Structures are given as C-alpha cells and as structure tokens.
C-alpha cells in the first residue's frame, strides 16, 4: 500500500469512526437504561419490551478499489437506532483517490415505518469531497420491493435551490448459505449544474457493482467484486475536462460487517 | 432486563428441600448440571421429585455446560429443569418461592386454574418477587394431570426456570401405567436470549441456515424442470415471504434438551419388557416446536394439556411450546428405543432412550428432509380444500399465485365489507393477511404431511366427559394473529401489548374466541386462568386445552367460560413473539 492510498484510507476510517461513535454511544445508553430500569419499574411488570429500541451499524462496503481513475478506498455504511416505528438513521457513502475523498456524503435521517416493507426518511445530507461541501434537505423512501430488492429512493433540496435525487437498488443472490453475490445499482440526478462540485444537470452518474462475499459468520464477510461506473452529460464533460475517464471499471476487495 | 448475569447470589448448598423429597428418582441432575451419561433408574428419574403440600423453591443461578462452553442458568433449587412438583387433586398447596437473583422473578403455574393473584405474572397478577424476597403461593388444586411451571419475568424461562407439575387425581388414574416418566423438552442457548432477540430485530433471518439458494434451485430444476422450479419460487418472492421460515431460532444457537440432557447425554428411562410406561411429554421450549416419535413403538395419547382424552394411537406427534401430552407406550422387546424429537425446521433434535438396562442405545433416526412451507400455510382455505395434501407448491395453479398479491379480492368470511376491509389491511406490523383461513383440524402441519406415519392432529383428540360448560357461547371475540417477519414484529390484530386495551370478559359468560393466523408461523396461544375448549370446524366440542397451537393460515375457535374473575395474561407462547407484543391482558369482571 503506497502513501497515497494510506491517506485515503485514513479519511475513510475517520468517516467510519464518525459514523460509529454516535451509534456506540447510543447503544451504551440503551444498555445503561435497561440497567437503571431495575429493580423498581421492573417489579411492576414482566419486563416485556415490545417497544424497545435497538441499534445497528452495518458497514456494507469497506473496500479498496483499483480502476482507470486511480486506486483508493470506498465505503458505504448505515447505522440506525430506534424502535419499530421510528428510527434515527445515519448513512454514508463515498470514495477516495489521490489522497483525498473524491466524493461522498453523510446523511442523518428520521426513518418512519409506513407500511409492511417501507419506511419514509426525512433529514439532511452533507456532502464530502472535492468542491464546496453542500448541505441538502433529504426526503425519501426505503424498503423491500417484491422479489427481495432492497430499494432506497431519496430526493434532495439544497440551500441554493438545486434539486437532486438518488436511487439505489440492491439484491442478494445466495449460492449457498454462506456464499452470496450482491448486485447493486445506483443512479444520481441533479437539476442544475454545480461546476464547483464537478456535477452537471440531468443524470450525473450510475454505478453497477457485483460483489461476491463469503459470510465467515453472519456478521462478518470478506468480498471481492467489480464495479462499473459511468458519468453522463455535463458531468461527463467536467470529468473529461479533468482528464479523467467517463467510464471506469474497478476491481474491489473489502469487508462487510455489522453489529 | 436480565441482560447481564449478576453473580450467583446464593451458594448452591443453601438450597432447601422440603418433605417427601424424592420418590426414588436418581439425583443425577441434582445441582450437578453436566449430566452426561447419568442414568435414570426409577419413576420420574433424573429430576428431583418434590411432593406433598408445602414446598420451598429457591430461584438462583447455576453453572451449566451443555456445549463445552460454560454458561449460567436461572434455576429452581439448582437444577434445570427444576424439580418435578407432585401435587394431589383436592389438596391445598403452599409454595414459598425465594428469589436469590439480583433481579425480580416470578413463577407461573401453567394450566392451573387458580385465583388470579396466585397466577404469577408480574404486573398483572402480582408485583413479582423482589431480589432477596419470598412469596408464598397458596391455592386449592382443583384439577389433575400433567402441567408445568415457569418464570414469567424477563428471559428467565428461556435461561432455565421451568419444571414439570404432576397432579395425581383424587381417585385412581384413568389410564394406569407401571412406570411414569416426565419427558421435558427445552431449548438451551449459550447466548443470552436478549442478544438472540436483538439479532432477530436486526436481521430476522439470522438463525435460518436453510435459506433458499441457487443450489436448491439447481436441484429443483433437475427434478421438477426449470419452469416448475421458477414457479415454486415466484409467489414467495413476489410476496417477500420466505418458505424456509419455519423457526425463528434454530439449532444454529440452540441445543435441545430432554429432561436436561443433551442428545449425547442421552437421558434414559428404564422399563421391563411388557410394562406400560406413561410418558408425560412437556414442551418447555422458548421457541421450538418438536415432532416426537419412538421408532418401533406406537404411542397411545391419553391426555392433552392435563385433560384425559379418548386414547388415540399414533406414530408421531407435534408438540408446540407449552403444550403437554401424556402417551402410553408398551415396549415388548428386550431392547432400547430412541425417543426422538426433531425440531419443526429439522435443524436439530432432542433425544433420549427407553431401555431395559442402563447404558443401552438404539439407532437415532436421521432427521426428515426440510420441507418448504406449503401453499395451505400461506393462503389457508384458498389453497387446498380439506386435508392439505401437497407439501410444496406443485399442485398450485398459476392463477392462484397471480392472485396472491391482491388477496383483498378473495372471498372472505361472513362479515360486513367495511370490517372485512379494515381487518385485512397490512401495515408496518402486519406483512400478510389470510382472507380465507382453513378451519380443518386434521392437518398434521408442514413437514408431517404424507410422511407415511400416523401423526396426531387436534382432530384426533376428544376430551373425555365433554365440555365443562354446555352453554352455547353468547358472543364471539375474533383475534387475528399478526406479524411482520422482516421487522420481527408480532401482535394481535396488528396492535402490540403496550398499545392495546385489555380484552374484557363478563364474569360468568360463555364466549367464543376465534383466532385467525395471518402469519406463516405457528402460534401456541395460552389463556391463563381459564380453559380453552377447542371446537371443530362444525362448532362441536373437540378438546380442552390451556395452550392452543394455531397453524399458519388456520382459524381455530374455542369456547371459554369466564368463571375466574381477575386480571389474566393471554399470549403467544413463542417467547420472542410474546416479548415482541403478541400479548393481551384479559380482564374478567
């Protein structure tokens, strides 16, 4: 690993820590809460917790990638804490190259269960990476579509009146109880150009990933994969101007874990 | 919540035993909880038997080791299962329960008809038993038969606080036997139930090690053809339902125990060829349904939930958590027989032996193949009329499958359209509905259909003497059993315990409870303090139970005489379902 990727990794690591800390703190709160419950309130009931809150941190992708546009780390992670109806979500994704976070964002959302398989999400997004770090209001839905497709569709409104949208779909194909292939597709759209962020209006980029993972335990799995990404329209123009390729194929290797 | 084990608050040596200690049972499991190779020798062997009218029970913590990894169990008088309590019908019993834990505790006498303040449910019948405190339960024993007791606090039942209750009838036993054994089944995990539950909340398929896979698909494609293999999956996938979802928690974490013995530990009950043995089978599991058989022996079922039934001879029976069955077996040969209790999802089994001499073993059968949940488990009466013959979806028409996502269009029960539409909505806590549930009682259930063995069903069971109350029920209370597997939510009518009002019975009335299972899982529903008199599809009395196991997409109705005033618990005995809110308070006033 050369110094460049090391620097990139450090940033990714910091982003992960930023994501983990609140979650861990909340989990600890939850534990101490249940401890403090005793003994007096528990004396009054049978200690049922049908509306208790739980927390989860899922680092779906934490990987190194190798592609035409360079090598670097990338991540995709989410954390939630809450009960059956309402949860606080933190979500982050991003990638680095050339010793910096190239693009990425961190979202904080209030998730609310609205139907058997769907939740609404309302909150904010903060952009990381090159250019100005924009802030957005976010509203979206997240859930499980028929045939087990996990979907996230989020719309964003920035303080400069720009509108953006992101759609992400994911599927898990089990070869065996441990070996599984995870296709993932993401598309981003913007209403207006933002040259400072090197993003143009319309469909800015799409990404299709195929990751083959092996669950050593339910909660820890290494994987290898390939990701095709493509930039479109004005975004592609910016990309060409930056002497990067519009189309990239990356080979990735990483780990997925949750707790 | 008992998330962390406090250190044992009392030395095991401080256990107090009362009069009439053992009936001749070996003290194999007494305090010593690694009972590998211990052999039972007499009646009720291997567990302490306490009989009489006065009992002192100490609840504490005991080190156990079932898997090679030491753990700590919550125990009664230091043993898991706790001592067998033997009462006499017509007597008054006094039980002093002392809490040696650092958290509150309780004991509920499952299936016993008693005053509500003796029922042992903290927050409903009493305030619980504080650490260091004692509580004296005192009540008249009005019934006879096989029952059991367990904690109703936190996760204590799942960590070992359970035991058998045997009540000898005032006269002689209707079905005499030469020997009498308790067969207590339960599921043990080295992981704390709180962390199992938390994992289910995060990933409800965590313990399912038989998820549909490409490997299955290839096998099916070879056997059924590509088209059938796709068809078999299509509806499940469209519905976001998992046909392998038979047990929420499996042998991935559970070790299944028989009388506190692991399968390798091999609990053994002795007999002389030609003798009649009464086996009192109790499912004290938190989450496990067992299919029990004794290869080479017919079982004559003589009692269900402590109530004598007209004897029926079967090869195999399915027992849901909290149910009890008494069976009589008559081994004639001078050889060992295996008691084999495989779990409904075929991920593991509990096992013991009946043998003429200690140390003998019989072959342990291979587990049956795993079977996917069938169409009748999903669509009820709309899938297959009468006895469910197909265990897969091979018999399904594609039209029916196309109908699935639009179940509202299906013909339903007789009720007005508005109520019907409201009842059949899905929502965050309800992932499916069954508009036309099946009402037949003669389906042995998923995995047991057409297996070549005579399998017990509720249709085979007829309680001797008929119902306790001949009155026709004055009204119906319909409760739908609801859940969302993805979110791991469970409820009645889509409403969790904490959001629900109590269900009210008028004192003295005879009413009918209609349970409709809108899920793909079994729910053993237990009404405290009053009997559940199950009716067949025609509305005639069938059998009397304290715990009624409702199969997926099934409707079962039973009559209740509300003759026991007070506040009662009413819940699913799958303990994580109960924990998640599949629970109601019933008020009789």
Fold and architecture overview:
Chain A: It comes from Dyella choica. Chain A: Keywords: Signal. Chain A: GO terms for molecular function: copper ion binding. The complex is a heterodimer of chains A (259) and B (589). Chain A has a single domain (3-43, 57-258), classed as Porin, CATH 2.40.160.40. In chain A, 19% of the residues lie in helices and 56% in strands. Chain A is built from 3 helices and 13 strands. Chain B has 589 residues and is mostly beta strands. Chain B starts with 48 loop residues before the first strand and ends with a strand. Chain B is built from 7 helices and 31 strands. In chain B, the strands form 6 sheets. In chain B, strands 11-10-13-18-15-16 form a 6-stranded mixed β-sheet, with no helix packed on it. A 6-stranded mixed β-sheet of chain B has the order 22-21-24-29-26-27. In chain B, strands 1-4-9-8-6 form a 5-stranded mixed β-sheet, with no helix packed on it. Chains A and B meet through helix 1, helix 2 and strand 9 of A and helix 1, helix 3 and helix 7 of B.
């Amino acid at each position: 690993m050369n110094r460049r990727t090391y620097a990139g990794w450090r940033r990714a690591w910091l982003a992960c820590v930023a994501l983990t800390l609140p979650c861990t703190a909340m989990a600890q709160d939850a534990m101490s809460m249940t401890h403090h419950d005793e003994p007096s309130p528990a004396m009054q009931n049978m200690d049922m917790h049908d509306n208790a809150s739980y927390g989860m941190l899922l680092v779906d992708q934490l990987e190194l990638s190798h592609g035409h546009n360079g090598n670097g780390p990338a991540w995709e992670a989410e954390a939630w804490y809450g009960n059956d109806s309402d949860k606080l979500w933190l979500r982050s994704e991003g990638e680095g190259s050339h010793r910096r976070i190239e693009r990425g964002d961190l979202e904080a959302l209030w998730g609310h269960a609205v139907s058997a398989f769907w939740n609404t999400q309302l909150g904010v997004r903060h952009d990381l990476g090159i250019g100005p770090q924009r802030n957005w209001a976010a509203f979206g839905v997240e859930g499980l579509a028929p045939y087990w497709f996990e979907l996230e569709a989020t719309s964003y409104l920035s303080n400069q009146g720009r509108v953006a949208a992101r759609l992400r779909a994911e599927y898990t194909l089990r070869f065996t109880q441990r070996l599984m292939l995870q296709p993932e597709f993401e598309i981003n759209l913007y209403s207006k150009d933002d040259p400072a962020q090197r993003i143009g209006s319309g469909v800015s980029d799409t990404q299709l990933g195929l990751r083959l993972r092996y669950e050593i335990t339910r909660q820890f799995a290494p994987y290898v994969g390939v990701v095709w990404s493509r930039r479109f329209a004005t975004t592609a123009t910016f990309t060409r101007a930056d002497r990067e390729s519009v189309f990239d194929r990356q080979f990735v290797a990483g780990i997925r874990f949750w707790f | 919540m008992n998330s962390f084990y406090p250190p044992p608050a009392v030395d095991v040596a401080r256990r107090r035993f009362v009069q009439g200690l053992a009936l001749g049972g070996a003290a194999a499991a007494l305090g010593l909880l690694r009972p590998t190779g211990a052999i039972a020798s007499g009646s009720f062997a291997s567990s302490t038997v306490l009989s009489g009218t006065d009992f002192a029970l100490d609840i504490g913590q005991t080190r156990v080791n079932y898997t090679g990894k030491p753990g700590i169990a919550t125990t009664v008088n230091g043993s898991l299962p706790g001592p067998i309590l033997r009462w006499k019908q017509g007597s008054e019993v006094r039980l002093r329960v002392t809490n040696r834990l650092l958290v509150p505790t309780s004991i509920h006498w499952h299936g016993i008809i008693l005053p509500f303040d003796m029922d042992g449910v903290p927050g409903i019948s009493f305030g619980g038993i504080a650490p260091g405190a004692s509580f004296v339960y005192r009540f008249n024993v009005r019934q006879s038969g096989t029952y059991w007791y367990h904690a109703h606090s936190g996760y204590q039942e799942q960590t070992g606080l359970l035991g058998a209750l045997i009540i000898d009838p005032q006269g002689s036993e209707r079905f005499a036997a030469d020997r009498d054994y308790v067969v207590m089944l339960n599921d043990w995990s080295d992981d704390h139930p709180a962390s199992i539950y938390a994992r289910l909340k995060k990933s409800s398929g965590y313990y399912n090690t038989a998820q549909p896979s490409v490997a299955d698909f290839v096998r099916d494609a070879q056997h059924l053809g590509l088209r059938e293999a796709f068809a078999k999956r299509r509806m499940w996938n469209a519905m976001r339902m998992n046909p392998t979802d038979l047990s929420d928690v499996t042998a991935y974490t559970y070790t299944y125990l028989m009388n506190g013995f692991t399968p390798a530990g091999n609990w053994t009950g002795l007999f002389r060829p030609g003798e009649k043995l009464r086996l009192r089978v109790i499912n004290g599991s938190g989450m496990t349904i067992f299919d029990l058989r004794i290869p080479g022996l017919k079982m004559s079922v003589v009692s269900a939930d402590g109530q004598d039934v007209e004897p029926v001879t079967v090869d195999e029976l399915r027992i849901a958590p909290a149910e009890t069955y008494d069976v009589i077996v008559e081994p004639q040969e001078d050889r060992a027989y295996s008691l084999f209790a495989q779990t409904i999802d075929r991920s593991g089994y509990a096992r013991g032996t009946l043998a003429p001499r200690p140390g003998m073993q019989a072959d342990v059968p291979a587990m049956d193949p795993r079977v996917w949940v069938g169409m009748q488990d999903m669509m009820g009466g709309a899938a297959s009329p009468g006895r469910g013959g197909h265990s897969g979806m091979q018999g399904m028409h594609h039209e029916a499958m196309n109908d699935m996502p639009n179940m509202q269009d299906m013909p339903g029960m007789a009720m007005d359209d508005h109520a019907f539409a409201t009842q059949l909505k899905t929502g965050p806590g309800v992932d499916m509905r069954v508009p036309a549930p099946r009402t037949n009682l003669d389906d042995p259930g998923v995995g047991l259909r057409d297996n070549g063995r005579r399998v017990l069903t509720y249709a085979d069971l007829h309680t001797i003497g008929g119902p306790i109350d001949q009155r026709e029920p004055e009204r119906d209370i319909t409760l739908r059993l609801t859940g969302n597997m993805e979110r791991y939510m469970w409820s009645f009518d889509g409403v969790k315990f904490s959001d629900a009002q109590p269900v009210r019975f008028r004192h003295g009335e005879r009413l009918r409870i209609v349970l409709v299972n809108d899920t793909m899982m079994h729910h053993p529903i237990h009404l405290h303090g009053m009997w559940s008199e199950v009716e067949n599809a025609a509305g005639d009395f069938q059998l009397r139970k304290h715990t009624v196991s409702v199969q997926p997409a099934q409707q079962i109705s039973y009559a209740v005489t509300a003759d026991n005033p007070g506040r009662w618990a009413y819940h699913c005995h799958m303990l994580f379902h109960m924990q998640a809110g599949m629970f109601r308070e019933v008020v009789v006033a």
